[in-house]
Each structure stands twice: as structure tokens, then as C-alpha cells.
């Protein structure tokens, strides 16, 4: 029940914020905060349950922590089916945490049409929580769309100079690909109906479907495209740099921190379990795409002049590791993928938040107009350094654990892909350190705009949460991997082709 | 032993305090925290060492170590890594070098950097470095070692670029990070391979499993050793990944002493010594290690002869001395290698710190052409530099002699070619060290003997004097590392080999004396224009920078520039263009002319009807 | 009874009338004349229906003619009304000038 409570309270908070918005911006902020707070309170029992189930650390706990199934459209076997395992708990937790971060970063940045903004923000969050917990495919699709529209509005209404282009590109890419997913979904349900005689959209029922044929491969491809667009992976990544650059800071944080993760989650939850044979067949291609994403996006990131664009390409590079980890499909790489997802959520949120803070202070995002910021804003610079080295995968921080586990796991099944992707480790400092060099080191360039306001307390607080999270993840990734282990092992068993399942 | 965790924690605590103070701390307090944390770590090391020896006295096996498990770190599937520390003789030796030399350098730096506006930031990075370096040597598994490995790389980056206002320093810093990261990547791939083959990343387990699972001289141990060697080569600035070290001299001088002479650059030697059972399985890998060491020591020696920057001379001499350590590893003189690592850490730190004092006295001038005749004005640095140089040349009875001579002998045992190269390298060392010594402290430069000022701060001289004393007597130390490493074979080379090894450096000093002070045999200085090309080639470090620039940097930059706007973005743009072109084409027919519409309708009707009729 | 030859004649006549009407629609620019030409085309079609209906002795031909006549009446009523409105608004019934509805 908690999941529905979380979604409803987020939506209620959003509606309340919209209602209060015209009267007082402050009231709408507080309403949004209240919605988020209620959702967090409802989330805690779930978290406690997950911890108590896996407390022993043996990975023998129950897979599904909470499951609700209510009839919705019985004619087509569509149900309000929510089920939460350790993976979902972690991702919902990440969503709520980044919800706070984006709320904090919106606090001073968003001044126009506040109520509506928080409405969009909370509805996006609600949609994402729904995506992470819905296991009825139709319901999943509904939430998939719910998170898309408010995000589109956030970019369109509060974005920067070129926002319409970016928002439209974002919308067309995701919408077109999600229609492919819908089509695949319907055909899959039809296939299941032919095989078993019952119409059901439930993930659990569809697991039983035999999808080993040619058609199964095409259906898998439909899902794959939808998720890889969201992830995003090369060659369907083009919407991301534009969307990130144009979105307001809270939008970028949401986009990088959690919206991309829905793509990763989809790959994890649907591709292998529903289409084990097809996915296995597709693995070499997917791995190649992942490796290309890692290297090509890293190279592009280095060449960018716009900070947010650079970070966006860096995100694509990191998501390439996720593709790799999922398609390696073994315990190490999958757990690594989860760590990578969370770590990237935190580090990219930090990077985008800082990029936003720089833009607020200097009114530019262009690296060649910045320079010599360190003496002016030492704390901001030091935190930027922290997130930059987190992004380049320094051991001791979360991203390293994720990337290392992914590469280690991938190497066991496809050494060549892992070795080539490991070259990304050389390219990562090239792009991560160029930001530091151009924006923070050196002396201010002639046309640089000076600023003297260092971080204020609420900004430090916001970034400190992310810093602590990344350090914890770097030194105690077990806190995370223990929670997800039962769910992940179960998922892994489901994803093995018949005959190989244990 | 239970307090082992304290050793890396103390500097890390210092780092944490300095970071959280976020610049509000006074210099005096920052000094206490920054220097004190490392000094306490040194005391903790002594305490641990007494316990270690007490345990050894109670009948502990030679070479066995203690494991202190802290918490489970990364667990998934069959991967089970603990955050745990491991102490044996080898890591204990390293601990002494890091905390002992480190504490002295910190003390020195607290005086050297006193006038710097970013005093606190400097000690923040330094403490983090020491913590990471201690993690590296104490790590129980290779991933934890990798954590320290990358951590020291980060601190090296931060400290080389410490004076960030000059973009050149930033470039040098990034170069150091990226070049060593290339090596680190090889190291990481080596870890993946080890895990795949042996199913473990615990060092001790690997060392036991490797001889059982790999056949002697097989491909797998060679491949693994080569990958680990890649990491070692990057960190230790050996050919072909050596180019970052000379540029790294952009950092403050104490940094050069600590990171780029005494500790971090020797991490590669430590790694190979630590994993020696794997390397021993592959004669090819051992030859590779020795050859890389030999080539590096010769290349760096020639380059050092042609440098004019006092720190760059020392940087190239560091490269060449680490070359000796690699050579020693390659010829199975394990304990000599670690012994040389320790003595080199002491005397090279001494040389660098003395160079720092000279640079301070010369108002941050590093060009040795502008120095000269400084021995009267700077007596303490003069004597310290003299002792350090004697160690570097390996004159008996300094510590450098005791550590280098066994390497030469072992090289002879393994293959006389290694000996010829190494002994020639020793000759080169003598020449360039004499040159440096003479140009700085003797003679007179063109503009007369420069005026110097005495640097303030009592912290500068004591570390120099202590290090100088240690440099002289360190040859007597009994290294605990010897218990861990296989014993070297007894060396019985011919007498003339031993004598040549001792005499050739003396000859080198004599030649250097004649050429650079007395002005004889000027042809050897190669100052005639005919040698310009060769001199430039040697001074540039044999053109490696140029080569990498052409092969890697330039193409990458060109590619990055050419494809800044992402060629894949053309696909959606092409869709946009295509659909708008279609729109223009089809909308032309929709011109509002009623009669045109009728005509086309009629024409189309006729076409359709005739198609229906005549087909 | 009308024999086959005469049916052909009737069809040819209808065709000629249709083409005349079409030509009128194509060449005239005055909207009133365009409507008249359309009327001619409709009647040509009606003629063809009548002829065909009587040739096969079926009532549908005449039924269709009635439909055509009704259509023609409606067309004239609406068409003339529109023409009047257009004339009032644009002061012209030249269809080449009334070309604002283009893409």
C-alpha cells in the first residue's frame, strides 16, 4: 500500500502547490515540500522492511517486499499491480532524495509561475516512482507517460534560450520510442493470450511467455529502443545534450538523476526477464553500442564549451557502462549497474546543481568565458572538484565501485568489450578535468564576469547530502547491494534462457 | 596490530579536519594539524613495528603477515572484497619510508610554503596524499591497493597544479593524471584478468593460487604480469609512460620531494615486489621489467645531462634511479630493489628539499645557469646537497653505494648486458650529478655570483640535516622486507666487475670536474652548433613528448574539434530537413487556384480511368 | 426501344457535354459561369444515367438522375449564395483572385 500512498501524496502535493501558487510562491514551495515529506514518511516502512528482510546479508530474504493488485480494466486483464523489491526500494529512495535536491535548487532559481513548477516537479516524481513500482505493463506505460509530460513542460516553460527546440526534441524522441514499446507490449500480451488463453498485462504472467522466436526478437527490440532512448545510448542520445542545456537546474537534476535511470531500470526489469533468448542473441550488438557510448560520448564531452552540455555527454558516457553491465547479465555486473545508477544519480545531480549555481552567479555557461573562479568561490570550486573526480571514477567514491563492478563482471563474459570500455577510464579525466582547468583554474579571462558570492548555507547543505552519499557509496556499497541482492538474484534467474535457469 | 588502521586514518583525519575548516583555520593551526597528523602516523608506525618484531620474536613465520579486517567492502556474486589491511615486512618498510620521510618533508614544507596564501589547501592535499599512499601499501586486496593507487594519482594532480593561476601548471597536472591513468587502466584490466582466472583479488590468495594454476612460462602469467607492469610503469614514470614526471616539477618543491621522488613514483616497484610470485612465473615478463628499467635509466641519464632546470635534472635522475629498481626487480634482486627504494627515498628527498632551499634563496629561480658559487652563501644546503649527490653517485660508504652495488652485481649474474648498461648508467649519473653540483655551488656564472637571501622559518634546516644523516647511515639498516621476498642468489662475479662498478663513478666525477669546472675537453660539452640537433633531442627527453603529441594528442584534439557538434546529431537534423523539403514540394500544388485544382482532378481521373481500361 | 447504336450516341453526347462543361470550368474565371459549366457537367452525367437505365430497362438510372437533379439544385443554391457573399466581400467573382485558401 505504501507505494500508492507515496504516489498519491506526491500528486496531492503537486496539486496543492498549483492551487496555492497564484497566491504565494512560498506557500507553493512549502506545499511541495510537504508532499515530498509525506511521501518520505511513507517510504520509510518500506525501507525498514527491505533492511529487515536482508539484514542477515545472506541474500536469502524475500524478493517482493510489498505487492498490491487491484482490478482496473478487467476486460483486458489490466490491473493496478504494484510490487516492490530491493531494487525498486533503492530507486524510489534515490528518486525522493533527488526530489529534495531539485526542490532545494529550485528554491531560489525558480521565480516564475512557482505553483505550476512544483506541480510539474512533483508529478514527474510521482511518475518516476510509478515506473519503478508498477509491474502491470499497461500501468507502467501510463506512468512512463506521466513522467514525460511534466518534464516537457518544465523545459518549455522555465528553460533557457533555445528551450522550444530542446523540449520538442526531447518529446519526439521519447514519445516515438515509447509508442514502439506500447506496440511491443500489446503484441507480447497477444502472444501470451495465444499461448495461455488469458489476457494479462502482469509482468509475472508475461514472464511465462515463450518469446524465443523471431517475433520475440523484434518485440525485445521495441522495448530496447524505448529504454535506450531514455538511457540514453548512442545513437539515439541526441535529445539529451539539448534538453540538459536548456532545462532549468532542477529540471537537469531530475533528468540526469532519475529520468535517465528509468531507462536503465527498464532494461534491467524487462529485456532479459521477458525475452531471455532474444536478449542473449542481441548481446553483442548491445555491448558494442554500450562501448561506443562510453568512448564516443567521452570524446564529445571533452570538446564542449557549454558546461551543461559537457556534463550531459559525460552522463551518456556513464550510461554506456550501464548498458554494458546489464547485458553482461551476471551478479557482479548487475549489482555494479545498480551502484552505478545511484552513484551517477548523485554525482550528476551535484554537477548540474553546481553548473546552475555558476550560471546564477556569472550568467554564463560557456567555459571560455569563465576562468579563475577558484579564488572567488573556493567552496563551490572545491565541491566541483569533488564531483568532477567522482565523475571520473576515483576509487573511494560511488562511481568507481559501480564502474569497477560492471567492468569486472563484463570481463567475465566478454573480455574485449570490457577492455575497450576500460579505455573510457583514460578519457574520463580528460573531460572531467578540463572543466576544472577552464572554469576554476587559471586567471579570469578578459571578458569574464566576476562574482564574489560563495555558497550560501542551503546550497552547501544540498551539495553536502550528495557528497556524503557518494562517499558512503564508495566505502560501504554493501549498504546498497545487500538491499538489492535478493531482488537482483531473482531477476537474474528470470533472465536466463530456459535450460540455463537454476 | 589492532591499531594498524590508525596509521592511514591519522593523515586522513588531518585531511578531514583541514577540509571541514574550509579555509577558516589559522596558519599555525593548519601547520599543527598538517604536520602533526603525519608525525603521529610515524609514531604509530614505530609502535606497530615494535609489535611486529615482538610477534616475530615469538616464532612468527618469516614472511608471514597480519591481516586486519575492517569491514566488507564490495560483495556481489563470487566477488568478495573486504576493506582490510595487511602488514608484513615489505609493507612495514614502506610504512617507514612514507611516514618517516613524509613527516620530515611535511615539516620542511610548513616552512617552505609559509608565505603561500593557500597554506591550508596545501596541507589538505598533502595529508590526503599520505593517507592514500599508506592505503596503497597496506592494502590486503588489489582493489584496495587500486584505491590508494588512484588516490595518490589524484593528489599528485592536485599538487602539481597547486599554483593553478598558470595554465602551464594545470596542463602538467592533467598530463600527469591522464598518462598515469593510462597505466592504471592496464592495471585494472590486469585485475579483471586475475579475477577471471583465479577468482580472487586478495593479494595473498593470488600469490598462492598463481603458481598452482598457471604453468611456468605460460601465456597467462605473462599477460597478467605485462598488464600489472603497465600500471607500474605509469606510476613510476618508466618508459614508455615517463613523460609526465619532468613536467610534474611544476608543483611546489616539497611535493616533488614527497610524491615525485620518495613515495608515489616508487609505487610501481612496490607493486611488482608485492606480486613477485606472479612475475616469477613468466621469464618474459621479468626480462621486460629489467629491460624497461635499463632503457629508462640510460635515456633518463642522457637527458639529465642536458637539462638546465635544477628540478628537472633531479626529476630525470629519479627516473633513472627507479630504472635501477626495475632492473633489480627484473634480475630477481628483490630485496636490493626495495633497499634501493628506501635509500633513494631518503637521499632524493634530501636533494629535492635542498634544491627547494636553493630555489627559495634564489627568489624562485630554477635555472642552474643563473646559479654558481653558492657554497659560501648557503653552507647548510651545500653540505646536504654534497651528501645527497654522493649517495646518488653511489660513492662508498654512503647508503647509495650499499643499495646500488648489489643491483649491479645481480645484473651481472643475470646477463652481462644488463651490467654493462647499468654501470654505464652509473657513470652517467656521476657526470650529471657532478655537473649539477659544480654549476650550482662552484665557479661563477656570467653575471657574477648571485645574491641570495636566507629563508625564514626554523623548519627548513632540521629536516635537511636529519635526512643527510640518514643518507649516510641508511646503508646499515636491516630491512624487514627481506623476510618477505625471496633471497637473492649469492653473487660471485669476477673481481674486476666489482671494482669497475666502484671506480667508474669516480671516473665520472673526474670527467665532470674537468669538463664543467676546469673547462677542459670542451668537445664533450657538445656546445658546437653541429650538435644542436642532438642536444635538443636529448634535452627533450628523446622526443617522447613530440611523438605522443603527434600520435595521440593532436589526432584526438583534431577529432574532438572536428566533431564538436556530434555527427550523429545530423540524423535527426536530416529528418527535419527532409520533412520540411517534402512540405515545400507538396504545398506548391496547394496554390488556391480553383481551376488548377479542377484541372489536376480531371487529369488524375483520366489517368486512373485509362489505367483501369488499358491494363 | 433504343438500340445499341443509339445508346452509343447518347453516351457520346453525354461525353461531349461533360467535356464542354469541364472546359468551361477550366477556362472561365467568372464564378457564375463556372457554376453554369458545373451544371452542364452534372446534366451530362444525368443524361448518361438515363440512357444507361433505359438501355438495360432498369429503374436505377432514372433514380440516379433524380439524385443528380437534386444535387444540382443544391449546388446552385449554395454556390450562388457563396458567390453573392464573395462578391460582397471582395467585389469580384474572378476565381483567380479568390485564391487565399492556399497552403
Considering the chains and any ligands shown, give keywords for the structure.
heterotrimer; A: 502 residues; mainly alpha; two-stranded antiparallel ribbon; 19 helices; B: 615 residues; 24 helices; 2 strands
Structure description:
The complex is a heterotrimer of chains A (502), B (615) and C (103). With 502 residues, chain A is mainly α. In chain A, a hairpin with a 4-residue loop joins strand 1 and strand 2. In chain A, helix 9 runs antiparallel to helix 10, helix 13 packs antiparallel against helix 15 and helix 13 packs antiparallel against helix 18. The longest helix of chain A has 34 residues. The model of chain A has no long low-confidence stretch (mean pLDDT 87). Chain B has 615 residues and is mostly helical. Chain B contains 24 helices and 2 strands. Chain C has one domain: Helix Hairpins, CATH 1.10.287.3510. In chain C, 79% of the residues lie in helices and 0% in strands. In chain C, helix 1 runs antiparallel to helix 2 and helix 2 packs antiparallel against helix 3. Chain C is elongated and about 50 Å long. The model of chain C has no long low-confidence stretch (mean pLDDT 86). Chains in contact: A-B, B-C. At the B-C interface, helix 24 of B face helix 1 of C.
Topology (SSEs and partners):
The complex is a heterotrimer of chains A (about 500), B (about 625) and C (about 100).
Chain A: H1 2-20, H2 25-54, E1 64-73, E2 78-85, H3 86-109, H4 114-133, H5 137-158, H6 163-196, H7 203-206, H8 214-230, H9 239-246, H10 249-274, H11 276-303, H12 307-328, H13 331-362, H14 378-391, H15 398-413, H16 415-422, H17 424-440, H18 457-475, H19 478-495
Antiparallel strand pairs in A: 1-2
Helix pairs in contact in A: 1-2, 1-4, 2-3, 2-4, 2-19, 3-4, 3-10, 3-13, 3-18, 3-19, 4-5, 4-10, 5-6, 6-8, 6-9, 8-10, 8-11, 9-10, 9-12, 10-11, 10-12, 10-13, 10-19, 11-12, 11-16, 11-17, 12-13, 12-15, 12-17, 13-14, 13-15, 13-18, 13-19, 14-17, 14-18, 15-16, 15-18
Chain B: H1 6-21, H2 27-57, E1 66-76, E2 79-87, H3 89-112, H4 119-138, H5 142-160, H6 167-198, H7 203-213, H8 219-235, H9 244-247, H10 253-262, H11 267-274, H12 276-280, H13 283-304, H14 310-330, H15 334-361, H16 379-393, H17 399-414, H18 416-441, H19 461-473, H20 495-518, H21 532-539, H22 544-562, H23 570-588, H24 594-614
Antiparallel strand pairs in B: 1-2
Helix pairs in contact in B: 1-2, 1-4, 2-3, 2-4, 3-4, 3-10, 3-15, 3-19, 4-5, 5-6, 5-10, 6-8, 8-11, 8-13, 10-15, 13-14, 13-18, 14-15, 14-17, 14-18, 15-16, 15-17, 15-19, 16-18, 16-19, 17-18, 17-20, 18-20
Chain C: H1 4-27, H2 31-56, H3 60-90
